[in-house]
Amino acid sequence: MVETVTRPIIRIGSDTRSIEDIVSLASGSARAELAASDDYRQHLNSGVALLEASCEAGHTVYGVNTGFGDSCQTAVPEDQQSSLPVNLFRYHGCGTGEHFSYMEGRAIVACRLVSLAKGYSGVRPILLESMVALLNAGLAPSIPKEGSVGASGDLTPLSYIAAVLSGEREVLVDGKMRAAGEALQDRGLRPIELAPKESLALMNGTSVMAALNCFAFLHARRLARFAATLTAMAVDALEGRLEHFDARIHELKPHLGQVRFAQWVRSDLSRRTTPPSSHRIQDQYSLRCAPHIGGVLLDSLPWMRTFIQTELNSVNDNPIVDPDTGNIYHGGNFYGGHMCYVADCLKNIVANLADMFDRQFQLLCNPSTNRGLPANLVGGATLAMAAHHGFKAMGISTSALAAEALKQTIPASVFSRSTENHNQDKVSMGTIATRECLRIIELTETVAAIHLLGLCQALDLRGIDKCCSRSSRMHAAVRRAVPSHVSDRRMDVDIAAVLDMLRNDQLPLGSLEDLS
After folding, report:
1. Measured between alpha carbons, how far is 263 from 246 in angstroms, rounded to an integer?
2. Which of 131, 147, 205, 244 could cross-link 95 (Cys pair, CB 3.0–4.6 Å)?
3. What pLDDT sits at residue 272?
């Protein structure tokens, strides 16, 4: 593949890589490169040599001269050991359900590469170079989403990477699914013959759940700012009270995220000209307590980043081949408990944002709470408008979406179950948690998009000239893609248009300065 645009290089080796690095590699906006220093290559080769020497000395090494899982008690004769790597990925080729997206598949490869490149897995440099080449060639393994219990890592989904590197199964390329062997050949790449331990090293880790958490983190981070922007617009449209966001209130309960959220809302409303409604001294909780709801996410993001980046930069397979000490360790670093905890917590926090958006939206549509706006934000003023229902059905949608998000917040970790002949008798369920987390984020973004459409309609009805500058900028951005609602029409295309703007960072949400 000819490189037509110079892309930044992300060097993979002993250096620490970030969430953003993984997403850059997944999107193809950056190229991967394996560290080339003599010391680093010697470190990798020392691990391979240690593994070989241990086996030659007659030591038992799990997955190299034994069977896998509960079959670790089965000794594999030397003349059969070369078939173990292929057999491992082939019998784990039992994933089910929809497949991960192109970017998700590439992020999974990138996370596995970063972990193996630490040099404590006993894999050859050529394996790492093959993973680098796979990413730089614009290929992604086609990986079914279902089938991982999160310990021993993501065995079944990661088997699809091992298979693709060996020229088997399928890849995603140029928007299509193709046979891996053909796609590799078209890109000038050759399949690799996996050495002992290499198939196990590729599969026996937490890279699927870590990769999905990278996306979940960045999407949730954007949602945090979006939540403050929407709250400010709702206060604007509903003639709510700015004093609920007064700095002094939040200084007296000084959770940093709560303080930051209130600051964002206060800043967005700083040039507001519309006086608050005289009907209430206090607004409803979905407005008044928005900093306390959104602040939980802001306060959680720093520790979540730490957990995710620690995981993706860790040695998380088994056994560990340590050239520094000359030892081979059998342990459980493949257990995905930390990744499951991040996802389970994020599920709860983000779903509560969906619920808050739905509550704010219902305030807009209800004539008993919207302070003079038409019921359901019906757009016209003629008698004929009695036959129109405006945003009534949109309110049903936000309720359904929020309920679906809330329903999935049950922690996945509590559904651990014994499997694989009771060898894997306590498992993390981390990959299920991260899949659910991304679904909740998707649902919450959709509720937010509908809420934004309702807010823009409310501002049209209230008078856009009376709005604060943030509301005006958001309104203008939406109106470039979606016209004002003047009579009943389908609005699914409007929702899709706003979601596309959000996910492509085309909405003026405000700055995320100083946010981890």
Report:
1. 8
2. 147
3. 67
CB 447 within 8 A of CB 354: yes
- Tens of pLDDT, residue by residue over 298-337, are 999 999 999 999 999 999 999 999 999 999 999 999 999 9
Is residue 177 within 8 A of residue 171, CB to CB? The reply is yes
Give the mean pLDDT of 140-157: 95
Q: What are phi and psi of 497, to 5 degrees?
A: -65, -45
H-helix or E-strand spanning residue 125 = helix 125-136
Q: DSSP string covering 273-333, please? A: -SPPPSS-SS--HHHHTHHHHHHHHHHHHHHHHHHHHHHHTS--SSSEEETTTTEEE---T
Query: What mean pLDDT comes out for the span 231-254?
Result: 96
pLDDT digits (tens, 9 = 90+) for 327-356: 999 999 999 999 999 999 999 999 999 999
* Tally of CB atoms within 10 A around 403: 14
pLDDT in tens, 413-468: 999 998 888 888 889 999 999 999 999 999 999 999 999 999 999 999 999 888 88
Contact between 465 and 476 (Cβ < 8 Å): no
Q: Which of 62, 91, 285, 329 is catalytic?
A: 62
Is 62 annotated in the active site? yes
Query: Residue 424, SS3?
Result: strand
Instruction: Report d(CA 164, CA 175) in Å as an integer.
Output: 17
- pLDDT score of 1: 47
Which tokens belong to 36? 């080339």
Q: Rounded to an integer, what distance in angstroms lies between the CA atom of residue 120 and that of residue 99? A: 30
Chain segment 383-397, per-residue pLDDT in tens: 557 788 999 999 999
Looking up tokens 């110079």, which residue turns up?
6
Q: How many helices and strands in the chain, by DSSP H and E?
A: 18, 9
Q: Is omega for the bond preceding 374 within 30 degrees of 0, making it cis?
A: no
Best CA proximity match to 162, nearest among 91, 103, 97: 91
Q: Residue 462 has which token pair?
A: 């209230």
Which pTM was predicted? 0.95
In b/e form, how buried is each residue of 144-166, taking b as 16+ CB within 10 angstroms? bbebbbbbbbbbbbbbbbbbbbb
How far is the C-alpha of 308 from the C-alpha of 324, rounded, in Å?
Answer: 25
Residues 6+ apart with CB under 8 A from 306: none
> Which pLDDT value is given to residue 3?
54
Peptide bond into 152 cis (omega under 30): yes
d(CA 49, CA 41) in angstroms, rounded, equals: 12
Which residue from 67, 112, 98, 92 is spatially nearest to 163, judged by alpha carbons?
92
Q: Smallest Cα–Cα separation from 516: which of 305, 241, 318? A: 305
Distances (CA, A) of 377 to 252, 367, 372, 383: 37, 9, 10, 15
SS3 content of the chain, % helix, strand, coil (to 5): 55, 5, 35
Q: Which two tokens stand for residue 503?
A: 């996910």
